[in-house]
Amino acid sequence: MQTTYTMDPQNQNTSLQRLQNVEKRIVRVLELASSVMDEWASPSGPRKELVNNHCSEFMQLIKDIQVTLREEIKSACEYRPFEKCDYVPRISNEICCKKLDHVIAQLDEMKHTIEGYHTTA
């Protein structure tokens, strides 16, 4: 059974909590990786059981992180608070205005070049 998450205020809190848990899992993954590296660097050699346990936990945490992030990304894509936002058209208009300013500047340069040509000829 797949749970669908919406971004209402109640679920935003749980979404934030899920992402905070992911952050904690990432920290734990780094700790495990560090412990395994320490084991491998040990002068007496690595303890096989400890390395195996850490590697198993590492892999499980990576899978959990991946699943949670995939669910969070999917729920974020379903939530579109900016559907009526005018950002894209506004930016497009600003870009068009800049392009027109550039064209006008180029035309002015051409006008001055032509005027300069006529005065010297």
TrEMBL record:
InterPro entries recorded: Mediator_Med11
Keywords: Activator, Nucleus, Transcription, Transcription regulation
GO molecular function: transcription coregulator activity
Main localization category: nucleus
GO term, biological process aspect, one: regulation of transcription by RNA polymerase II
Subcellular location: Nucleus
Superkingdom as given in the UniProt entry: Eukaryota
Protein's UniProt keywords contain Transcription regulation: yes
Family to which this protein belongs: Belongs to the Mediator complex subunit 11 family.
Subunit structure: Component of the Mediator complex.
UniProt function note: Component of the Mediator complex, a coactivator involved in the regulated transcription of nearly all RNA polymerase II-dependent genes. Mediator functions as a bridge to convey information from gene-specific regulatory proteins to the basal RNA polymerase II transcription machinery. Mediator is recruited to promoters by direct interactions with regulatory proteins and serves as a scaffold for the assembly of a functional pre-initiation complex with RNA polymerase II and the general transcription factors.
Name listed for the protein in its UniProt record: Mediator of RNA polymerase II transcription subunit 11
Species the sequence originates in: Coffea arabica
